[in-house]
Design goal:
Elements: E1 2-10, H1 15-31, E2 35-42, E3 49-56, H2 59-68, E4 78-87
Antiparallel strand pairs: 1-3, 1-4, 2-3
Amino acid sequence: MIIVAGHLRVDPAARARFLTEAANTARMARAASGCLDFYLSADPIEPDRVNVFERWSSRYTLGAFRGSGPSGLSAAEIRSADVREYDVAE
């Protein structure tokens, strides 16, 4: 199993719009083969932080989604990112 976890930093004034656009990515990910969980959420404490969590059945299924998934999230809106992948033995 692959876990992707961490956070993004975005302009606080643009966070709501960023998350609205991210909802489409989440819908597509959740419908993808091998996606066990996927969400981006507003941090309740820090107004510029977006929390990231994904859980995939394998590196292959994650790679397949990344290769065919949407590119709608604006990288220009992301000020910084600390997101890591973990290979977890079940």
